[in-house]
């Protein structure tokens, strides 16, 4: 139960970080657009300004960079959670096997951890995927 709750908290944190990054990109976009409109495309000496370099393609590339970054983080998170779930299951199986051996040495001496039914030691369920923007 504790690991499942921790996984939900980490997923929620990642969704919030993703939304915060998108808001920062939107803010940067708004500032660039306002500066282009207010200051115009010409500087004092008649040359084109650096502000002209901002366009929709650059904005889309910023959004794509944020999406790529958080997709990579999401993939790493899911792989780590699945690894933690498998490791926890293996430790619990070993503890189960040791307890069986303590109770009855003759019967359970050669019991493998894979012979223990999954009913007694369930694997923690980890989502295969989650939406970073659930809206």
How would you describe this structure in keywords?
mainly alpha, about 140 residues
Shape: rod-shaped
Largest sheet: none
**Intertermini distance:** 27 Å
Helical region count?
Answer: 3
Secondary-structure content class? mainly alpha
Overall number of structural domains: 1
The averaged pLDDT comes out at 77
Radius of gyration: 27 Å
As a percent range, the share of helical residues equals 55-70%
Total number of strands: 0
Give the H and E element order: HHH
Quaternary form = single chain
Low-confidence stretches: none
Proportion of residues in β-strands: under 5%
Summarize the structure.
67% of the residues lie in helices and 0% in strands. It is mainly α and 135 residues long.
Structure description:
Helix 1 (2-39) runs antiparallel to helix 2. The model has no long low-confidence stretch (mean pLDDT 77). The protein has 135 residues and is mostly helical. The chain has helices at residues 2-39, 56-103, 105-108. The chain has one domain. It is built from 3 helices and no strands. Helix content is 67%, strand content 0%.
């Amino acid at each position: 139960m504790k690991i499942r709750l921790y996984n939900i908290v980490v997923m929620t944190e990642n969704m919030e970080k993703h939304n915060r990054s998108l808001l920062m990109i939107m803010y940067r976009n708004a500032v660039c657009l306002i500066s282009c409109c207010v200051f115009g495309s010409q500087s004092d000496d008649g040359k084109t300004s650096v502000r002209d370099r901002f366009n929709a393609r650059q904005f889309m590339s910023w959004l794509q960079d944020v999406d790529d970054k958080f997709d990579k983080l999401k993939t790493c998170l899911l792989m780590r959670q699945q690894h933690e779930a498998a490791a926890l299951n293996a430790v619990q199986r070993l503890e189960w096997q040791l307890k069986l051996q303590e109770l009855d040495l003759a019967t359970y001496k050669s019991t493998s951890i894979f012979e223990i039914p999954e009913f007694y030691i369930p694997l923690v369920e980890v989502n295969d995927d989650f939406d970073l923007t659930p809206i």
